[in-house]
Amino acid sequence: MKKTIDDMKAKMEKTLDVLADEFRTLRAGRANPAIIDKVNVDYYGVPTPINQLAAVNVPDARTITIQPWDAGTLKSIERAINEAEIGINPQNDGKIIRLVFPPLNEERRKELSRDVSKMGENSKVAVRSIRRDAVEKLKAMKKASEITEDDLKQGEKKIQDITDKYCKQIDTMSADKTKEIMEI
Hints:
single chain; alpha+beta; 4-stranded antiparallel sheet; two-stranded antiparallel sheet; 6 strands
């Protein structure tokens, strides 16, 4: 039973990590290099992350600069950013690519807040699915006479308590991100 609960906790932690990564890649009006982490450049036929081809810097709150180590990759990087549809047009001056983040308007802030809520709800659905799988494992153990009825009830209560804790963490993360978006 302990192994089932430990496995469930590990999966729920992973769900929180995925949500945190999604929040980091959300373009919230502030320059964040994580936005381009998932952008791959075709470098001699191999999809390569930008941070392996160039120095990525944040000189101010609204700008990301990308300075490739090989000047020949400048056009490829620019093309990859355009194709990734991150919502920002790269400015290429022949040596450096600049991504300038415009300030968010009220409509865009509300849209981002809805996206944050949707991501949070999807994460809670994932956590509940993990809970359901863990309860089913406990019921299978009960059916196979590996645990008693009392153990099953205690296990279900413990699983529900853990699930509630993770759902509360997701709510907190979502509220914090929404607050950050609305304050920018």
